[in-house]
Amino acid sequence: RRECPGGHPDPEDLPPDTSNGNTGEDSLTQMATPEHSYNLLEGLLRPDSPVFILAFTPGWAMEWHKHQMAAISSETFDSLLKTSPEYSGCRSNMATFVITRKVLDAKGRPCERYQLVALGTGNSSSGEWLRFNGRMVHDCHAIVIARRALLRFLYKQLLLFFDADPKAKEMCIFESSADSHQLQLKSNIRLHLYANRCPEGANECLCSPPAMNTWTPMKLHCHAKSLLLPVAYLDPSIWAARVCCMSASDKLCLWTVAGVQGALLSHFLQPLYITSMVIGNQTNSDGEVCDISKKQLDDSLLELLPPPFKKQDILFLHCNYVDLTDEALRHSHLSINWCLGDKDIEVLDGTTGFIVEGSPSLSGPGSSSRLCKRALYSYFFQVAQQKYLLKLPTYYSVKVVASVYQTVKDLVKQQFLNNHEGPWNSKNLVDCFSTG
């Protein structure tokens, strides 16, 4: 059995976590039964989100793109909340991932097909003690939740690719690569991010009025005990025991090099990069946020990156699209997630990292989310075909053997240190859970 990092005891050797009604670790067999499963197959072939078509119009493309991203995000949120209007205030902190496909219209003219594939809302993270069974969602900020919903969508896409039905593979956004055993995004598809608020952290200082700009912009930040702090100011004992999460801004910066797919999906996919990000409630110059992202990780990193990794600078765009509600404060602790094919939204309490009572979707055991680490681990088992991956004992060990991805992530962390931006603190100990 692989030891956990830092010389700590393996959490599997600790007494079972009985919080939230959990009596211990569920086996993979138990999780596969209907009453205890994280449902990944739900709505696999159901294209049930709005689709917008945008014709290519040189000179106006960026303006149209910004408004299309805002419009499809707002329309999808409204559609999802029709049956649960009591959560409408959650839209005040919303992020979405949208894929665009280059297609031809009825007259044979090139155009872009927009489809929203993942949505997340929220503005909080858990302030509780660390949990070691993989069931807590630590960070419920909108961009982070949207990215986790995107991971769920990507696992669904892998199921489509491996399906024997040719129609399923045709619908999949991935294709085989001639240069690698990993799948790649089809050449006519791009991934875009929308957020109706600027991501917190180093970038946020450029999205605020000068009088509010009190941060040192080039430092890494983390959320700890309901505060956003430079990581250098945080006591190591807090990192070791309490939930602490790197800021969304810093995670965005990491994704420009490592991709959004994470370690587990790197076993199957080449790095997946964000092409553009639209920030919906700002009128700042489009280049400012992009500029600070480039400064956090300079081009000296490029020669060290193993292929197919690269540094993919995100095109940041702003549009003055304010989408706030009077109920925002009442729902400030709640977080909604959804991905394409899901029947219902799932609602979490961001301060605890678990599903709230009355959530339209209740898919996991013990009020655990379909986006928690344990759920992602179960999705991994549903798509993994290599026997050696299935034999690895823990979630942590599966992450570690994605060696090229881990090398790239370590290079990014080292450059943060070289630039005196602070250490990137990972929660490795909470990854040492098993399904058995």
From TrEMBL:
TM annotation in the entry: none
Basic and acidic residues composition bias: residue spans: 1-11
- GO annotations under biological process? adenosine to inosine editing; RNA processing
Question: Which is one Gene Ontology cellular component term of this protein?
Answer: cytoplasm
Per the UniProt record, the source organism is Takifugu rubripes (Japanese pufferfish)
What Pfam families does the database record attribute to this sequence? Answer: A_deamin
Name this protein carries in UniProt: Adenosine deaminase domain containing 2
Single GO MF annotation: double-stranded RNA binding
| InterPro entries named in the record | A_deamin (IPR002466)
**Region annotation Disordered: residue ranges?**
1-29
Location of the A to I editase domain: 118-427
Q: Where is the composition biased (Polar residues)?
A: 17-29
